[in-house]
Amino acid sequence: MNKKFFTLLLIATLPLMGLWGYMRLPDEAAVSLLANGNNWLIAVLVLFIFIAVLRMFSYLNQLQNLVMEQQAEEAGVAPESVPKRPSWWSGFYARMTDAVPVENEETIMTDHEYDGIVELDNNLPPWWKAGFYLGIVFAIVYQARWHVFKTEPLSQQEYALEMETAQEEVQAYLATAKDLVDENNVVALEDGAALSAGAKIFSTNCAVCHAADGGGGVGPNLTDPYWKHGGGIADVFKTVKYGVPTMGMIAWKDNLRPGEMQEVSSYVLSLRGSTPANPKDPEGDLYEATEATEEATSEAALSTELSTIE
């Protein structure tokens, strides 16, 4: 390992450390960092300063060559014979590639020759060796951190943790954004406050056709397992929202907010299995909610809400 290698290692390590620090920031802090216009302004200024420094080195190099030419003229030496000082970039490129000039190739020739073509024993470029060694260091750190000491979760564990966090965020989001619910992401509410609110809506708007206890009248009985248009939460919500005009069921989407339709739909489902005073004969088809159906509905709702939040 020589000076060239350590120079390149330092150049490669500093941006990687900055990227690693950025990735370790919480999501809110990372978004805030990128959204702050002052940070972008500082980055642009740093870039301009970097370019200015490079140009300064270039001008200094040109000035040194000019001074050397003037000194050669004063000494009576032809300016063309004075060796030019290489530019900063040329010197940096030469150090990073470790290439041997064509005029000095004899020093690295081997005895392998075929059809007039001689093999040269060039060194590997320092940038390539630096990347190789950095890869070894990264592999050791990764193996120790994720598989030996297990200070960080594996990808499957991280996915499970993120999904749990996402579910919590969805529930918190829905609690403050009830009116974004529709038939594609609706879920049955089970808390007492929501069911109480749904009972009030039912008593005001639905009891006239379905009876106060859900036993049915002009409308069907809501307490038995038979349903004309499906007995899942999405089915009931859709029926409440769009109605069934051909059977006298009006659409409530213009009278109730989405959150209210979710509450009353959840209350309707809570009536299933109760015992009304004068139950109407069953109508429609037997509906049996399977665990797979409920799980699929829950996953679909979660996926839709995650897309909405993002």
Description of the structure:
The protein starts with a helix and ends with a helix. It has a two-stranded antiparallel ribbon. Strands 3-4 form a two-stranded antiparallel ribbon. The chain is elongated. The protein is built from 11 helices and 4 strands; from the N terminus they run ααααββααααβααβα. It folds into 2 domains: 3-148, no CATH class; 170-309, Cytochrome Bc1 Complex, Chain D, domain 2 (Orthogonal Bundle), CATH 1.10.760.10. It is 59% helix and 5% strand. A hairpin with a 2-residue loop joins β1 (109-114) and β2. With 310 residues, the chain is mainly alpha-helical.
User: What is the CA-based Rg, rounded?
Assistant: 38 Å
Taking all residues together, what is the mean pLDDT?
82
E-strand count: 4
Contiguous low-pLDDT stretches (5 residues minimum) are: 291-310
Which bin fits the share of residues in helices?
A: 55-70%
| Number of domain modules | 2
Q: How far is it from the N-terminal to the C-terminal residue, by CA?
A: 48 Å
Outline type: elongated
Q: β content, as a range? A: under 5%
Strand order in the sheet with the most strands: 1-2
**By helix and strand content, what is the structural category?**
mainly alpha
Q: What is the string of helix and strand elements?
A: HHHHEEHHHHEHHEH
Number of helical elements: 11
How is the biggest beta sheet arranged?
2 strands, antiparallel
